[in-house]
Amino acid sequence: MNRKTTSSPDIGWLRAFTFTIYGTSVLVSSYFPLFYAQLGFSTSQIGLLYALGPMISLVSNLLWSIASDRYQTIKKVLLILLVGQIALTFILSASTSFSIIMAVITVFYFFFYPVFPLSDTIVISTAKQHGIHFISIRLFGSFGYAFFALLIGYVLTQVGSSNTMWVSIAIAGLALGFILFVKDQPTSVAKMDLSGIWAILRQKELLWFFGCVFCLAIGMRMNEAFISISLKELGASENLIGWAMLASSLSEIPVFIYLSFHGEKFKELPLLLLASLLFAVRFLLMGVTESAYGILAIQAMHGVTFGIFYVTAIRMLTRLIPDEFRATGMALYTIVWSSLAGLLSGTFGGVMFEQLGRHPFYLTAMGAALVAFIGFASRYFQKGPGANSPSKFEHKA
């Protein structure tokens, strides 16, 4: 690896941006629900507010990607998105009514969700330009998530959950400052070929894969939306919630590193089977534990569940989809993994958590993970234990 390229100032600023932007992810996924709870919202209302994000992302990700492609800039679009986030967060800080927050958060999500696929795009483009592995930059997102999870927990313990939005403004402002120094990249790596959607959806192998991913994502998004509420229910402080987020983010780092360099030694389907089964075990433990510290320990399983799944799923998609349809396939994957699963888990999960409680909630998440396990297992035995690469993608004009 070229030492000169890896020490480029451009890569340094991009790593700083990646590090910081995941701080906003910590806030939205883990601390925004506490802010809503502090305002007196019910868990079903919180679930609905959470579900709005994935619903909006179905449209916003596509629209901002098209804008990025049309004007051949990622950096300027990211600047607009961050400024929009800061403005909407300021309005949220002064809002207390559920109807007003619902309206404002809808617009906020329009600026929030596209930041991550676009930041991944600029990371992939920059890494390719400098001849390095994109994980060497993306890992700083995991480091940032861990750092801000702990820092935000301590800060909110001191100043209270009512100041969550001001903390969000500060972190988004920091990310905005870093992106100013990042070199813009053309969008050729992530252009979305809409004509390829039909070609992709005709492939049974991909439809099976997306179906399994959807089932697994339901359980993970349910946990993501309500883990902070579960911890609060068990008497945890914002500080302990930060430690739980820290445990999950730190645990994925060694798994990312190992599988990025040695993952090709292992076949994909067995890894996906392992990840699905461990997800089911993780959700079972989350449902039966009665201790906030127990949840803290269980969160350390995040690395061997999400870490294994994430790297292996991306690797499998690169085998399933040729270069000319890869961005389209990745966009569909994001819709399945994040948008559709988040929409269902937020609306359905919020009502379930409120009406039935935490135990049935996590048992349902476990059931979804087991359905994914069965789906991956059926494909594994159908193809044979020796199979690794999926069937070849065929496109007919």
TrEMBL record:
Membrane topology label: Multi-pass membrane protein
Subcellular location: Cell inner membrane
Annotated GO CC locations: plasma membrane
Transmembrane segments: 12-34, 46-64, 76-92, 98-116, 137-157, 163-182, 206-228, 240-259, 271-289, 295-318, 330-353, 359-381
Molecular functions (GO terms): lactose binding; lactose:proton symporter activity
Keywords: Cell inner membrane, Cell membrane, Membrane, Transmembrane, Transmembrane helix, Transport
Main location: membrane
InterPro entries in the cross-refs: HcaT-like, MFS_assoc_dom, MFS_dom, MFS_trans_sf
Stretches assigned to the Major facilitator superfamily (MFS) profile domain: 170-397
Protein name: MFS transporter
